[in-house]
Structures are given as C-alpha cells and as structure tokens.
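Anyone? Bumping this.
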Amino acid sequence: DAGVIQSPRHEVTEMGQEVTLRCKPISGHNSLFWYRQTMMRGLELLIYFNNNVPIDDSGMPEDRFSAKMPNASFSTLKIQPSEPRDSAVYFCASSLKRRLAGGYNEQFFGPGTRLTVL
Amino acid sequence: DAKTTQPPSMDCAEGRAANLPCNHSTISGNEYVYWYRQIHSQGPQYIIHGLKNNETNEMASLIITEDRKSSTLILPHATLRDTAVYYCIVRGGSSNTGKLIFGQGTTLQVKP
C-alpha cells in the first residue's frame, strides 16, 4: 500500500496567488482529514470528511480556505488568495470509520506539503 | 474530548526503556487514549491506543491506571530513531467525531 499521497511536497508562491494542495487517501478509507502545522500553533485540524461529505469545517481559518472531496480517492485544499501567514506544513490523513464502539480507526498521515507564501 | 497533560521534554539512553507519562484526569468512561508520534519533518504516526486494559503491540506498550486518569507509553528498548514528539490524545465516547486534538506533546530525545 502506498499510504496517503500528497502533492506537491513543496510549494513556494507569492502573496495573492491561488494554491491547491492535493491528497489521495488510502484505498478503502472513508474518512479524510486536513491538518495544518506551524511552530506557533502546532497541529490543527482544519476540516474532515466522512464518505466524501464535509462534517466539520470549524477549523478552517477563513473564507480564503476551501476543501473539496469529489470522490473517495481525491481531495483538495485550496487557498485563494494566499497570504504569508498561511505558510505552514499541511497534512492530509485518512482512516476507516467503523460502526463499532470507538468509531474511528487510527489515522494514517501523508508526508505533508510544505507551503511558503512570500 | 478530555484534555491531556504531558511533560514538554524527556531524555532516554539508547537501549533503555522510555516511559512517557500522560495525565487525562477528566477522561470519561467511553473515551479512548491514543498515542501518536511525529519524527522530524514527517507526518504523525499512530502508535497504540487503549480503553482501560493495558495494550501491547510491536511498537510499544500502553499502561492505563485503574482509575483511567493517567497512562504511560513504554518504548521497551529505545533507539535513536525513536527520537520524536509523542502525543497523547483522548477521544471517542458519546461525542465521537473522529477528530484528533493535538497538544504540544513530549519531545523525546534518545541519546547514544
């Protein structure tokens, strides 16, 4: 299994540009999570999906951020327009939501996308 | 989800057991304790989880106190590659959302 795949691994862009981060979850997983990590704020959950449906986007910083999951094997996180304070490592993770007590299996994280906005 | 408290940093000699404590005094009866770690520049990695019984897998052991208010992650023979930030997370229960709330974790430095 290839694990969670994220692209690009590194992105450098200028303020005001649109940025699209991509994620391919592990095959068979039905939950997908987007996180952001900075030195100041640590690891923060931005949004997560169950069966391609957004469940909780309360962690999305502002309207400049949007996420989609058009099918079970692909998700995007878009920032438009980007700002220097968006510079961070963005992680995607996937897991299998079960119907048993405990609900969710462990999350598997991708390698992350390091975003730098100049 | 219940809040957790971990020491910010710990050292361990290579080959010795690393014991990482975590306090979760407000844990509710059906919440699980999860441990993840993050090696520098990589995504977090699942280690182990438990409800009330002690658990062991190929990576580590998890000891949960009888009152479930604290737990200890044990790496039985730490290696230099175990140097990482270790996160203790409580989640699940009646409000199980699947969300992981990461705190600051414990930075474990394994020394030769």
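Late reply, but here is one note on the structure posted above: DSSP finds no helices and nine strands in chain B.
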